[in-house]
Amino acid sequence: MADDDLDRTLARLAAEQLGLFTTDQARAQGATGRLRRTRMESGRWELIRPGVFRIAGAPATWHQDLLAACMATSSTAVASHRAAAKLWELPGFGDETEPEVTVTRHRWHRLAGVHCHETLALPRSDVTRRDTIPVTTPTRTLVDVARYAVSARLEEALDDALRRGLTTLDRLTARVDELSGPGRRGITKIRSLIDARDAAAAVPESVQERRLVRLLARNGLPRPVLQFEICDGSRFVARVDAAYPEQRIAIEYDSYMFHGSRHRHELDLARRNQLQALGWQIFHATAADLRNHGRSDLCRTLTRFLRGFASLSDANPRKSDGAASVRVSGGA
Predict the structure, then answer these.
(1) How many angstroms separate the CA atoms of 299 and 285, rounded?
(2) Max CA separation in the chain (angstroms)
(3) What average pLDDT does the segment 279-283 reach?
(4) Is the per-residue pLDDT at 324 higher than 50?
(5) How many helices (H) and strands (E) does the chain have?
(6) 325: CB partners within 8 A, 6+ apart
(7) Looking at residue 96, what DSSP letter applies?
């Protein structure tokens, strides 16, 4: 193959691999050692990892570096653990920068700046591709990152994966059972999170909702119903972040970024008025509440309100007659 044809062929290949190609791929197209040296000396190719070249002009990115680490480490290497969690965009893992890969045992060589794990348990069913990068599936990724993440962070990542349909509780439970064994750190942690879940309950729609649930539980309050729909007869009125339906208490997470226009502000006020007219009390959780690891003003207020409602209900068990109809969205 003529040198110009070889360059065009490798450029097309690199375009499908985030600007990269390997020595083996270049050699398969007829690139000799001399030609490779010539291309590097001219600046047309750049050797960024042992056996991995970047085409001149291809932007250097974290994704590219991760793919280069997989290519250079082993033919069996796949992005895994925290790098895989970042690749799947799981919350709490966006700041991880070091390439992290998993390889079949005894089939790799050490690379500077690459965190490499060896395993005998990496079947094809645990591997897929994302952005052209070989990576562990979301299910396997959750099992792997359990060794590093604290329970709260792991729970938020699990919520996100379930909400986006990246895995299911049944699939995750089965994989946890299959991978359980001596030396597998984090298994107990992720199994406890799975066991604590109500399969019929709605999955929190955001990290903030999960933190709200944790805040309420930490302060001795019952678990609310998430994403609760409130209706007046057959007319839909609102869906609130969390609710205690029997007591007609709604809890909303408030962030200033969602109320940045006068029109939005007016819609929020009209919605609030409709809910209050139906006898609902609206409470607001803020970022400050969710950052509070102890008692919060919100929880103190809710506790007093719920105790007052319990006393009133004991004195007048028919208090709820004439209530507006309500229904649960996404499970009780």
Answers:
(1) 9
(2) 93
(3) 92
(4) no
(5) 13, 13
(6) 231, 232, 233, 234
(7) -
Question: Residues with Cβ < 8 Å from 227, sequence gap 6 or more?
Answer: 202, 205, 239, 240, 241, 328, 329, 330
The residues spanned by each domain of the chain are 3-60, 63-195, 207-328
Q: What is the pLDDT of residue 83?
A: 96
What secondary structure does DSSP assign to 157-175, as a single string?
HHHHHHHTTS--HHHHHHH
C-alpha to C-alpha distance for 283 and 123, rounded to whole angstroms: 49
313 to 20, 251, 266: CA distances (angstroms)? 69, 21, 34
CATH fold of 207-328 reads Endonuclease; Chain A (3.40.960)
What the block records as the tokens of 246 is 């029997």
Q: What's the pLDDT band for 104 if we cut at 50, 70, 90?
A: confident
Q: Which helix (H) or strand (E) holds 84?
A: helix 81-87
194 CB neighbour count, 10 Å cutoff: 15
235-244 and 225-232 beta bridge pairing? antiparallel
When pLDDT is cut at 50, 70 and 90, the band that residue 107 belongs to is low
Residue bearing tokens 């678990």: 223
**134 phi, psi to nearest 5 deg:** -65, 130
At 7 the pLDDT is: 87
Q: What is the DSSP letter of 51?
A: T
Sign of CA pseudo-dihedral 329, 230, 244, 281: positive
Categorize the per-residue pLDDT at 310 as very low, low, confident or very high, splitting at 50, 70 and 90. low
C-alpha span between 203 and 199 (Å, rounded)? 9
Range from 48-57, 80-89, 106-115 carrying the lowest mean pLDDT: 106-115
Give residue 1's pLDDT.
65
Between helix 169-179 and helix 138-145 the angle, nearest 10°, is: 50
Edge to edge, the sheet with strand 235-244 lists 281-285, 249-253, 235-244, 225-232, 326-328
| Per-residue pLDDT at 326 | 42
